[in-house]
Amino acid sequence: MDRVIHGDGQAILKVCGCGKMHFTYGPITLHFDRDEFLAFACELSRAADLLRRQAHGREPVLGTSPHGTKCH
User: Fold this and answer.
1) Alpha-carbon dihedral angle through residues 38, 40, 46, 49, given to the nearest 10 degrees
2) Chunked in runs of 10, what are the mean pLDDT values of the chain (72 residues)?
3) What is the pLDDT of residue 52?
4) How many CB atoms lie within 10 A of CB 58?
5) What is the model's pLDDT at position 9?
6) Which of 33, 39, 40, 48 is the most buried (most CB within 10 A)?
7) Range 11-23 burial, b when 16+ CB lie within 10 A, else e
8) What are phi and psi of 9, to 5 degrees?
9) What is the pLDDT of residue 5?
10) What is the DSSP letter of 65?
11) Residue 62 CA: distances (Å) to CA of 29, 47, 65
């Protein structure tokens, strides 16, 4: 049986009977197994906390991405 978990905003997590998870936010859907999703959620939470601290001047702004991601 599939279960759907709605967040407060655009986030939807569909948990399939096979154990796969499909996380949808707006037009983007990411597919995970349970352990991958939990690791992703922890990393996303850490990134959000860092961004909040930077906005309040408690953390220095980081330099370039180690993965080569560019904005433009």
Assistant:
1) -100
2) 73 90 92 96 92 75 61 62
3) 87
4) 9
5) 73
6) 40
7) eebebeeeeebbb
8) -120, -120
9) 75
10) -
11) 28, 12, 8
The C-alpha angle with vertex 68 and arms to 58 and 50, in degrees rounded to 5, equals: 20
Sequence-distant (≥ 6) Cβ neighbours of residue 33 within 8 angstroms: 19, 20, 21
Tokens of 57: 């001047």
Host H or E run for residue 39: helix 34-55
> What was the pLDDT predicted at 67?
65
Of the candidates 47, 52, 7, 39, which has an alpha carbon nearest to the alpha carbon of residue 25? 7
pLDDT at position 41:
94
- Distance CA(27)–CA(67), nearest Å, equals 24
